[in-house]
Design brief:
The protein has one helix and 24 strands. It is mainly beta.
């Protein structure tokens, strides 16, 4: 059974402001700080639902969840609950609260094995060095996921930029207008679907995975080393498809002309790469190093 305990709240002092600045959180004269500490077991479930403001998640002690929340006015309050191995915090707007007065900034430390669900309409969402599942939903704020290994990473956004760095596992990203940039991302499944945002991938298409990048009007650029091994199908209905690789051609339905390519890189292709766009340009580039 987990236990939660509200520790303190009040006007932040100068010393607290220094600590928060080092932690990357803003500080103002009207800011109220609240601290929460929870004891948890293996693979706890952590859910943060924040209407306005950033949510930053990093790894802390193995069996403890620590939350520092900064409330920017008295027009917002926090609803918190914990049951068994689950922790939930929700930023709740009070009458008169809006996008400015309702800002709450979260700094959260969780066990590396935690499964987390994060939401913010306007603020930055950041998660790093986690081994559990990461589910992130945003509207306009940037989303960063870094150094995560072994879990499922699901990201959904409207117009916020998405950046994934050194992420290994099962990855699914859906974006309407935000750009999606991935560096060193591998997994059994890496799927990105974007409407107008661009998709950029820089990695080696490893882990014998399936990599599917689909856009409507956004460009797709995939960069891989010369030693990469993969099968590729690429097609843009009304855009150009270009490749720096000398691919072994293969037959595939509906693949012909400057709008498409199909081939194999490497003697024993280990991964499947699918790049599809309606009107965007598709570039398959060889890394120069």
């Amino acid at each position: 059974m987990s236990s939660g305990r509200w520790m303190s709240s009040g006007k932040c002092t100068a010393n607290v402001a220094t600590v928060l600045a080092l932690a990357g959180l803003a500080f103002g004269a009207d800011t109220v700080r609240k601290d929460f500490h929870y004891k948890v077991g293996k693979r706890p479930m952590i859910s943060i639902n924040n209407a306005y403001g950033p949510v930053i998640v990093k790894v802390g002690a193995p069996h403890e969840v620590t939350v520092v929340a900064l409330l920017h006015s008295n027009k917002v309050e926090l609803d918190e609950s914990n049951s068994r191995n689950r922790v939930d915090l929700v930023s709740h707007l009070l009458p008169g609260g809006d996008e400015t007065s309702g800002v709450v900034e979260y700094q959260i430390l969780v066990p590396s094995t935690a499964n987390i669900t994060l939401h913010s309409d306007t603020g930055r969402i950041h998660a790093e060095k986690l081994e559990g599942d990461v589910i992130v939903a945003g509207n306009d704020g940037p989303i960063d996921v870094a150094d995560c290994d072994g879990g499922h990473v699901h990201v959904r956004t409207l117009n916020g930029a998405v950046n994934l760095n050194n992420v290994h596992g099962h990855v699914e990203i859906m974006s309407v207008g935000g750009d999606v940039v991935m560096h060193g991302v591998t997994g059994t499944l890496v799927a990105v679907n974007s409407n107008s945002g661009k998709i950029e991938y820089d990695g080696d298409f490893g882990a014998e995975g399936e990599y599917t990048f689909t856009s409507h009007t956004g460009n797709i650029e995939a960069v891989a080393p010369a030693y990469a091994s993969f099968d590729v199908l690429a097609r843009s209905t009304h855009g150009v498809v270009q490749s720096d690789f000398s691919l072994e051609p293969k037959h595939a339905p509906f693949m012909k002309g400057a709008n498409s390519l199909a081939g194999t890189m490497g003697k024993a292709a280990s991964s499947s790469v699918r790049l599809f766009s309606f009107s965007g340009k598709i570039l398959l580039k060889k890394r120069q190093n």
